[in-house]
Amino acid sequence: MNNLKLSALMLAVALSASQVMASDMRLDDSGRKDALRLWGVQFEELEYRYSDDDEELGVWNGDAFYGTDELKLRWLGKGEYAIEEQAYETLENQLVLQTPISTFFDAKAGVRFDTPEGPDRTYGVLGITGLAPQWFEVDANLYVSDEGDTSAGLDAEYELLLTNHLILSAALDATVAFSEDEEIGVGKGLVSTETGLRLRYDLIDRAISPYIGVVHERKYGDTADFARAEGGSTEDWFAVIGTRIAF
Amino acid sequence: MTRSLMAGVLGLLMPALALAGEYNISVDRVIIDTGDFVKEGIGYNGSSPGPVLRFKEGEEVTINVTNNLDETTSIHWHGLILPFDQDGVPGISFAGIPAGETFTYTFPVVQSGTYWFHSHSGFQEPNGAYGSIVIEPKGREPFRYDREYVVQLTDKHPHDAGRIMRNLKMMPDYYNRKQQTVGDFFSDVSEHGFMTALSDRMAWGDMRMMKADVEDVQGFTGLINGKGPDQNWTGLFEPGERIRLRFINSSAMAYFDVRIPGLQMTVVQADGNNVQPVNVDEFRIGVAETYDVIVRPRTDEAFTIFAESMGRSGYARATLAPREGMEGPVPELRDAPLLTMADMGGMHGMDHGSMGMGEDGMSGMDHGDMDMGGDSMSGMDHGVMPEQEEPAMAGMDHSNMAGMDHGSMMMSGNGAEDPFYAKGSGLVPTAASGGKFLSYADLKAQKPLYEDREPTREIELRLTGNMERYSWSINGIKYEDADAIKLQYGERVRFKFVNETMMTHPMHLHGMWSILDTGAGKWNPVKHTISVQPGTTVYMETEVDAPGQWAFHCHLSYHAASGMFRKVIVEGGPEQGNTAGVEQERVGGDV
Question: Which domain holds residue B384?
């Protein structure tokens, strides 16, 4: 009898305990438990270029992303539009997925579509992007085109704070091809470099930062020969004026 | 006859009824005018900050919260001990208050002191959803004052909080306009020589860390009771009166160094609990902390309450004056502090290889070389010091730290010491007057809430993060990927905070007290929010006396939102009620 009472009591305790547990088990459905999903749009370069040959170009270099810390979908776009010829000298669009691989670096994989004036190309892209020691922003990519040609690109950027609003940035882009693709004027070896020095002023937060600068473009080796054969230049100096945008 | 009987019965019930109060709060879209800018935000009863809620200890409060927003809201009663389903954290305590609905909180008030309340939904709190709570004690207070004011600080930013979060994620230095410039480099060169200045820059550059990384979100206007520096909130007094100032830091991100030039402040309470009075000239108030001080202006003049942000990017200002319209002198902002290598002490997992510094040599950098002598250190032997025999302390030999030569490195530490900062830290505060600056080590409980006893176990929480990704975490795991911390009802847990980041984190455990280990034994102060400085290890103990589930997080809004957050589940315990003896049948969601 006593035993029965005791077990009934224990059952009651167990039942009420399980009730408490049930209420404890509220799952956090407030959204806080979800990874932060963010987006951003940035145009590192959005500028007008005027060359030492009186060539005028509209140039942009931008990207937009949506995603989490772990996985982002990113669009990267580059364009050079010759104003007089009304033609795209460069028109690149990349769509990549990006994921962290170390404290300061992300890996990227995706596709790149080049649709300038002349023949088009589609590439597979594999790259890393991040912050190297001493604050160098680095972006390195490997490309394989639909023609089977491989090439690599390296972008590096460094910022020097003259003041907290007046910032001098130095950028170097270099392209190397591992095989020749004459149709688009690319020779094997070092293809081209673009070096830029831009002095910007953060006008509205870091959202709008007008700048002036100078850019040097140069083609090398066979690529330079192809350019000469086409009657194009192999080395250009540009004065640039533009604005950096981030929102 | 019946009526008089009824009256008699009612009369008997009156004392109980007298201690029941009903309060109504509406959550509204409001306009916030700081004097520097006007923006839309969220407030209570039509304004931000919301009202001062005045409760009495022992009162059973009923608070009807009506959500006039078009999104879910919530109110968390910061620092109040109450049943978990009344704690107001959506997803943990309850479902939240849907748009257009009213939720009724009911709980007994089992404590007294200065507290505050705020939304725990999204970024509503940094957008303005906060107010203050003053609880009158049952008994007499152990100090006298003639009048009192709430002094509620915040860092109001012109940007919407959601946008701030996005900007920080895109560019972690988006709001940092205190970065080292070329000019700073050349002044370092002239002061320390070219090679020293260069190697200093290289050492920081190697870590990809900025010594100016003290305040993530700059560009705010400091407000006191909703008034910007030019709007000058004023509290009146008669010369000779004792004034109790209830300081509350309701900032999203900013720590404030508070002083009232010309007046000494007697700190009598911290985080709602009375402390043994300490006279100070200045104190640092972490985000979400409260300090009550008593001042006694004897002369017929105006005094400025001046609260500089820790990173010196902004300030709040108010006035104590005998008459409306009077103003005291407003001091200049002091120079911004810079982090030193000592503040980087806890950074495991950063790339130290290139610094020629073993990981072992780095861990324990925090206090290992601390001078144990000196008055400020007395009684601190167990408090914040990592135990000497800990493995983390192995390899403390500084000789293996190439590039870490403290002599030639520019340790911009000001020479001041505080056991709650890394030795040589650039963040150690000093009083502008040259006088006494409050330290955690000065806080001693007036009346211990709990019997002092050995903790039943220790839980290590490493405060971790990655500034470049603006992701913050505990033990390297963000809230989204983390399991709950499980505690057993009745145990006393010793939490070991190891700050491995270069930022200060105000850690707030909901529902249960945080007994900060200052080495004062049973006189250790009882708090609800504990600041853990970079490169330091801090211990706190918690008597696990509140069943249910609770939030535990860094109170910097954008750190909490990006992962420095945990759920704590207290298992077991009385099936009904918590220590407050409340019935606990309400399981959230009741409207």
Answer: 179-213+337-442
Q: What is the per-residue pLDDT for B20?
A: 86
Please indicate whether, in this complex, the C-beta atoms of A161 and B177 are within 8 angstroms of each other.
no
β-bridge mates for residue A98, sequence order? A72, A108
B-chain residues near A16 (CB < 8 A) = 575
Whether residues B408 and B507 share a domain: the answer is no
State the nearest Cα–Cα gap between B202 and chain A, in angstroms: 7
| pLDDT tens digits along B337-394 | 999 999 987 554 333 333 333 333 333 333 333 333 333 333 333 334 333 333 333 3
Q: Best interface-test mutation with A: which of B167, B216, B472 has the largest number of A CBs within 10 A?
A: B167
Q: What is the CATH number of domain A38-246?
A: 2.40.160.40
Nearest to B508 by CA among B542, B561, B554, B558: B554
**Does the residue B554 lie in any domain?**
yes
Partners of B257 in beta bridges: B284, B308
Q: Which of A4-18, A59-73, B473-487, B572-586 has the lowest mean pLDDT?
A: A4-18
Say yes or no for a CB contact (<8 Å) between A24 and B170.
no
**What would the pLDDT profile of B69-124 be if each residue is shown by its tens digit?**
999 999 999 999 999 999 999 999 999 999 999 999 999 999 999 999 999 999 99
How do strand B492-499 and strand B537-543 relate by DSSP bridges? Answer: antiparallel
User: Is A86's Cβ below 8 Å from some Cβ in B?
Assistant: no
> Going edge to edge, which strands form the sheet with B52-56?
B52-56, B130-136, B113-118, B76-78
Could you report the predicted ipTM of this complex, rounded to two decimals? 0.89
Which chain B residues are within 8 Å of A30, Cβ to Cβ?
A: 89-92, 96, 121
Q: What are phi and psi of A73, to 5 degrees?
A: -100, 125
B8-17, B415-424, B483-492, B563-572: lowest mean pLDDT where? B8-17
The domain total for chain B is 3
B79 and B188 share one domain: no
Q: Which of B526, B52, B25, B46 is nearest to B250 (CA)?
A: B52
Inform me whether the C-beta atom of residue B350 falls under 8 Å from chain A C-beta atoms. Answer: yes
Residues B463 and B436 in one domain: no
Q: Domain segments of chain A: what residues?
A: 38-246
Within this chain, do residues B34 and B110 fall inside the same structural domain, yes or no? yes
Position B78 in a domain: yes
Cβ of residue B92 closer than 8 Å to a chain A Cβ: yes
Structure tokens at A133: 């020691």
Q: Is the peptide bond before B297 cis (omega within 30 degrees of 0)?
A: no
CA B189 – CA B192 distance, rounded (Å): 5
Say how many CB pairs under 8 Å bridge A and B.
Answer: 106
Q: What is the mean pLDDT of chain B?
A: 87
Instruction: Give B126's contacts (C-beta < 8 A, 6+ positions apart).
Output: B157, B161, B164, B252, B253, B557
